[in-house]
Amino acid sequence: MTNPFSYGFTKPQFKILSDSELNKKAYKPQAVSFGPYHHGEEYLKPMEEHKCRALFHFIKRSKKPLEPYFESLAQFVQDLKDSYKTLDLVWLEDTDAF
Fold this sequence. Notes:
By secondary structure, the chain is an all-alpha fold. The protein is built from 4 helices and no strands.
């Protein structure tokens, strides 16, 4: 097998960025947010109505009751919570709100 670097490809470089080096704007949602980090922020509230309507239409088109969706998600709630580096106490304690 030919070494891919012999064709002029460069070896990827990885660097772990400190908080001061991160582009904070890149992690701030512009129009819609899924998840607890930016929930309730004023500039994202207009999209909440659209998210609810999209969920309603998804459930309606599936022609299935809502309960199986909740039951399926309930199996993964703790995994989802654990995937966040920091999570406000409200979200940690209230699984239904999460």
